[in-house]
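Hello again, I could really use a second opinion on something today. Take your time with it, there's no hurry, and the full record follows here:

___
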Amino acid sequence: MKKALLVTRVSGFVPQHEMNNVKILQEMGFEVHYATDLENVVYGKDNRRLEGSGIIPHQIDFCRSPFSRKVKIAQRQLEELMLRESFDLVHCHMPMSGVVARRAAWQVRKETGREVPVLYTAHGFHFCHGVPWRNWLYYPIERHYARYTDRLILINEEDYRRGCRFPIRGKVVKISGVGMDLKKMEPYRKQCWEVGGEDLRERYGLPADCGILVSVGELSPSKNHLVAIEAMAELRDLNLVYLICGRGRMEEVLRKKVGELHLEENVCFAGYVENIPELLQQCDCFFFPSGREGLPVAVMEAMAVGLPVIAADIRGVHDLIQHGKGGYLSRSFSHAEYAAKARRLFTEKDGGSAVPRAVRREEMGRWNRERIREFSLKVVEGQMRQIYSEVVK
């Protein structure tokens, strides 16, 4: 039986985002292996989702910093795994594991003489327009390791244009992200546009008849939740609540800011949420001031449910949302600008014309539901089947 190896730095990434690729590979006759740090589960609570999937896991002691001495340990572990299992395909994800896996695969290729295709999906380069200069330290690294890549798979237009200028061994291709399962999302299609659902308000103790702005994602500096919280301070006169779904190292900082601004009744921390689509269905607007994205799944889920989106006008987001059609995009990270856009969605007038607030949100949600069809699981599955078929002899 042919063998394929998927590689990610942290555990949970494959069951969260790559199970359709696993299905494709298994249907093509591959035994699928997964190399990751099983002790560092970031996506989900544990590794139980791997059970019954047919995926064979392998512990690799990945580290986050490219300057750590542990990098060589992880590379050697991967080399030993590749030599032992004689994989026919390697598909790596995430920057650090992408570099280490490609180095290991190249070393094994030199030792054995076997031409095993190596694929790397960049779910958003660290470097892009508008990010701090230190992010561009990754540019020469990604450019260099393109030489060891048979397919460089990119998911947004900005990355694709830049990747096409890399001296790559194989080809650069663009796909429509990880794919959104629209059939799975259909039962959660938003129906009522007056206020959020009662179940949600009861669950989190939210005020009756409040409008709910929601964000989903890790509580990290790059997600810019502080900007959204500061924007809520300017929306006190409106009956709105900001629901933050996720966990992360910024939680205490965010809670402190909520206390400083006396927004305890306007901001709610939901923690880790199991059924995101069910929650989104009962909200009124998706709030997403993140500063760096590839092609955000969180935004795609909100679009599939039918929510308008207020977000930063950045790479990946403007691949999905058209300003004024599917929501409002902000070209700055000013909390005042985000507050103004939220106010526009929840008040009667937009510019000089009177537009009922619920009608405006519904129209934007409808536009998003149509737009997300271009990023469906069916579309991405076709793209990935073609890529795998091209590289596997």
